[in-house]
Design goal:
mainly alpha; Arc Repressor Mutant, subunit A; Tetracycline Repressor, domain 2; 2 domains; globular
């Protein structure tokens, strides 16, 4: 019987010792495949080839194509919620916290346009897989609590209006951050403007921020916020 080379033994042991690395490689390839082709168009064979993991391992870690797709959705929602937590919104005053949340949401979708394709596809499937996720709702509850805290602190400080529904507010923030990206090609053609251009995107971000903060504010506070926003622009040379 021939001897197995030390290099092959080492490589074999390396693979056995790194299941987390293999799983991560599969997930990374799966995110790209499902974002590009949706659930129906995605091919597990492509994910296997791009990740360097054989089909047996892929099915071992994720069960089947549906399990892998659900894991991809969990990955995307986990990423956005983790980045939101790093904003540390509970430690800043309410107007600044809301400004950070609007800016983060706007910039997240601008940076992750591939995720929009994934979410659009899941909506075409009527949320079939996100409903099965054990992660999405638990991940969302802390965000809701954070927004509620900002609203309550802002109201007590006399800055925000009362009785704002945090879910309605977050959906409005998301809509202002999402729609122009998901529909940028048709809107650009309609208006003869490049909605992906850096300058236009910056104007859109400021527009979204102003809409949310002005709507949230009490009449007197609204005027103060607008004055502060103008002063901030002047200070940074705009």
């Amino acid at each position: 019987m021939g001897k197995t080379s030390p290099r092959r033994i080492s490589a074999s042991k390396g693979r056995k010792r790194n299941p987390a690395r293999t799983r991560e490689a599969i997930l990374k390839a799966a995110v790209a495949e499902f974002c590009s082709n949706g659930f129906t168009g995605a091919r597990v064979e492509n994910i296997s080839a791009k990740s360097g993991a054989n089909m047996r391992l892929l099915y071992h870690y994720f069960g089947d194509k549906e399990g892998l797709y659900t894991a991809v959705l969990d990955r995307v929602y986990t990423q956005v919620r983790a980045e939101e937590r790093r904003l540390d919104l509970g430690s800043v005053e309410p107007v600044e916290g809301m400004r950070r949340l609007v800016d983060f949401t706007f910039n997240f979708f601008a940076r992750h346009r591939d995720y929009i394709s994934l979410l659009n596809n899941e909506n075409l499937l009527r949320g079939r897989f996100v409903k099965k996720s054990r992660a999405v709702r638990p991940l969302t509850l802390p965000l809701l609590a954070t927004i509620t805290d900002l609203l309550e602190r802002g109201h007590k400080a006399g800055t925000f209006r009362a009785d704002v529904d945090p879910i309605q507010l977050y959906i409005s923030i998301t809509a202002l951050s999402y729609f122009h990206v998901s529909n940028r090609y048709t809107l650009s053609a309609m208006f003869g403007r490049d909605l992906g251009a850096e300058g236009w995107m910056e104007q859109r971000r400021e527009h979204a921020q102003s809409l949310i903060l002005t709507w949230l504010a009490k009449p007197v506070a609204s005027a103060r916020i607008q004055t502060n926003q103008r002063a901030k622009k002047i200070a940074i040379g705009r």
